[in-house]
Design a protein that fits this description.
176 residues, two-stranded parallel sheet, 62% helix, globular
Length: 176
């Protein structure tokens, strides 16, 4: 099998690798695409759980989806924390910056800015920049991994995720 740490993985492959193969790595660096592809899949899964909880309301199925959503949130906590810390390392910031959202409004906006900022081009205190190999159609056929998404695909996915996040908040308010 190929070394997935050096591949520019597609959404689901990236998510699986982050959750299974790289979930407690708090010491290296993660690129913007690695972080945001992981976040895109996480947002979609969270939205599906919220939608199912809203549809089924205060029924047995609603409670079951609520429980499954909680279990998923617990299971995804360490991988999410790990990839966010590695993302901050890519811009030469400490993982402790993830505590800034506890400062109302400004802290959250600043952390989102940091997570979206391009990584350092050269070495920093957290290591060398991650250089990913693109997965071509030939390599996809050979390895079973999906082809690397284009930058425009990533941009569209993030717009969809932002819309889903807003819808998720709206659904949460409707559920109250």
């Amino acid at each position: 099998m190929t070394d997935l740490n050096i591949k520019n993985l597609a959404y689901i492959d990236n998510f699986k690798h982050s959750v299974v193969g790289n979930f407690v790595n708090f010491s290296t660096r993660a690129s913007r695409s690695e972080y945001w592809r992981f976040t895109a899949v996480t947002v979609v899964i969270g939205f599906v759980f919220s939608l199912l909880r809203f549809i089924f309301g205060n029924t047995f199925l609603g409670s079951l989806f609520n429980l499954l959503s909680f279990a998923y949130t617990c299971a995804i906590f360490l991988p999410s924390l790990g990839i966010a810390v590695r993302r901050l390392h890519d811009i030469n910031k400490s993982g402790w910056f993830l505590l800034l959202p506890f400062i109302p409004i400004i802290g959250l906006i600043y952390v989102i800015y940091l997570l979206a900022k391009p990584g350092d081009a050269g070495d920093n205190q957290y290591g060398s920049p991650v250089s990913y190999e693109t997965i071509t159609a030939d390599e996809s056929a050979r390895t079973g991994l999906k082809e690397t998404p284009s930058e425009s695909m990533d941009q569209k996915a993030m717009i969809v995720c932002l819309c889903l996040w807003v819808l998720n908040i709206w659904i949460s308010f409707l559920s109250i």
